[in-house]
Amino acid sequence: MSDPNQTVAFQGLPGAYSHMAATRLFPAMDVLPCAAFDDAFAAVREGKALYAVLPIENSVAGRVADIHHLMPDSGLHIIGEYFLKVNHHLLAPEGAKIEDIRIVRSHVHALGQCRRFIKAHGLKAIVHADTAGAAAELAERKAPGEAAIASELAGRIYGLSSLHANIEDENHNTTRFLIMAREAVQPREDVAAVTTFVFRVRNVPAALYKALGGFATNGINMTKLESYQVAGTFVAARFYADVEGRPDQPALARALDELRHFTHELLILGVYPAHPYRFAARQSLTPE
């Protein structure tokens, strides 16, 4: 049995991109694969793992389904973030040649992210539950003429050859992961921080406009704002937001106080160090 205090949970099979993120973040720790996102949350909550590393969004596919719904009720805190460059590989059994491949299986997002490659090679794309699962199944079946799109790590784990590396359409294909823990952290004062929270505004005209006004007047940079339906209704939405700064800083404290006047729910999910990728990406987008 692994030591829970030296274990990090992730959703998916070994070789998933979440597995890659977990091992890069915590190379000395054991990993705990979980069948579903809520299982990964539960593993941390129940003391089976110290952390969970979970995807929140991708630069091509957008937000990861279910995570926004699960986080507010998970009882866990965001203590960090990590950005993983996604490099898809066309994997096949040993001895296979790319000209022999006719069918490729993978997660729907991975297939979508490799659309140009798939079309150029005349492949039939079949959706699988996940990338690593497609690789594991291919290694077991060894079906001639079939391949999987997955990570290089999946290829190593399941003994598959990489017929072609970096087949994703977009070079910027990056997934952002969140590190979840039972206890909140307080980032050092000398590092830039991100605050993530969810809120619901009152169901009145211009409520969202008024609620966000405090962030503008206090000079707070909001880097993410998304809405999603709650309780099966189409008239009430919960909003998920990331802002730069920490709640104990006067400007953000004032903005959050103003937000509270227009909401009937405000839950801070975490205050954590900003990953350096944020600043590198911002610099690349700044015109000279």
From TrEMBL:
The keyword Protease does not apply. It is an enzyme of class 4 (lyase). Residues 7-182 form the Prephenate dehydratase domain. GO terms for cellular component: cytoplasm. It catalyses: prephenate + H(+) = 3-phenylpyruvate + CO2 + H2O. GO terms for biological process: L-phenylalanine biosynthetic process. It comes from the Bacteria. Keywords: Amino-acid biosynthesis, Aromatic amino acid biosynthesis, Lyase, Phenylalanine biosynthesis. Residues 196-273 form the ACT domain. This is prephenate dehydratase. It comes from Rhodospirillum rubrum (strain ATCC 11170 / ATH 1.1.1 / DSM 467 / LMG 4362 / NCIMB 8255 / S1). The lineage of its organism: Bacteria, Pseudomonadati, Pseudomonadota, Alphaproteobacteria, Rhodospirillales.
